[in-house]
Amino acid sequence: MYTERGSRLAGAVVWTVTPEPPASGPGRVLPDGCMDLLWHEGRLLVAGPDTRAHVTDGDRSPWAGVRFFPGTAPTLLGVPAHELRDRRVPLTDLWPAAEVRRLTARVNAAADPADGLEQAALGRAADAGPPDPLLSGVVAALEAGGPVAETADALGIGARRLHRRSLAAFGYGPKTLARVLRLQRALALARGGIPLAETAARAGYADQAHLTREVRELAGVPPTELPGVGPR
After folding, report:
1. CA distance 149 to 151
2. Arithmetic mean of pLDDT over the chain
3. Residue 214 sits in which domain range?
4. Alpha-carbon distances of 2 from 17, 39, 58, 100, rounded to whole Å
5. Which DSSP string do the residues of 32-100 spell out, in sequence order?
6. What span, in angstroms and rounded, lies between the C-alpha atoms of 225 and 221?
7. Which of its termini does the chain have fewer beta carbons within 10 Å around, N or C?
8. Which residues in 144-182 are b (16+ Cβ under 10 Å) and which e?
9. In what order do the strands lie in the sheet with 2-6?
């Protein structure tokens, strides 16, 4: 069972996965522009930004995580997002081993690992300072369906600078980020009961066929095979 709640860290989400019988098969984590700090079997890991669906192996043990708002994790973790693109890595690959051991011990000692992770994220955020407002502006403009060139102009930076900033903050260029955010916008509509043809139009796709192609490319399956999206 998957559950989530809003975090005390602005824009973040705290989540847990507790598998339930009968045994589940592989899962599918879709691109969302985010990065996550993860806890699994007493270990800490980091999930980088995805450009395609991450297929899980149907593991039966619990997971917990903090999902950071797009563009905010690299400052907290101290690593450019593009270095972790489409990867899941132990936190020891990014931070000194002694620091990770201390943090892991605190998370494991918490009554709920998800709460321990949130405390760790809050501590890092306090040391890192406020997020770059430019990045939230990029996300807001692209989530609203704004073209990349217009987004760069509105924010007062050139297209090349926007691309460089996006690679470091989001893990990929603004065009890929726009596709990922549009995917999430479309899935929210479809899971809310909007027919796929109307979803395509409202999310900014040329037509339903365009929506289906994009979902296949980013999610690995057609829309109707995703949870909560029925054949309409």
Report:
1. 5
2. 93
3. 133-225
4. 4, 14, 13, 26
5. -S-EEEEEETTEEEEE---SS-EE-----S-EEEEEEPTTTHHHHHTS-GGGGTT-EEEGGGTS-HHHH
6. 6
7. N
8. eebebeebbeebebeeeebbebbbbbbbbbbebbbbbbb
9. 2-6, 13-17, 63-68, 35-40, 43-47, 88-90
Distance, CA of 189 to CA of 197 (rounded, Å) = 11
For the chain, give the number of residues: 232
Residue 42 class from Cβ within 10 Å (0-12 exposed, 13-18 middle, 19+ buried)?
exposed
CATH number of the domain enclosing 79: 2.60.120
DSSP label of 131: P
Q: Work out whether strand 35-40 and strand 13-17 pair parallel, antiparallel, or are unpaired.
A: unpaired
* CA angle in degrees (0–180, nearest 5) for 188-89-3: 35
Domain presence at residue 219: yes
Average pLDDT over residues 79-108: 97
pTM of the model: 0.92
Residue 126 has pLDDT above 70, yes or no: yes
Looking at beta carbons, which pairs linking 78-81 to residues 24 or more positions away fall under 8 Å?
Answer: 80/167, 80/168, 81/35, 81/48, 81/49, 81/167, 81/168, 81/169, 81/170, 81/171
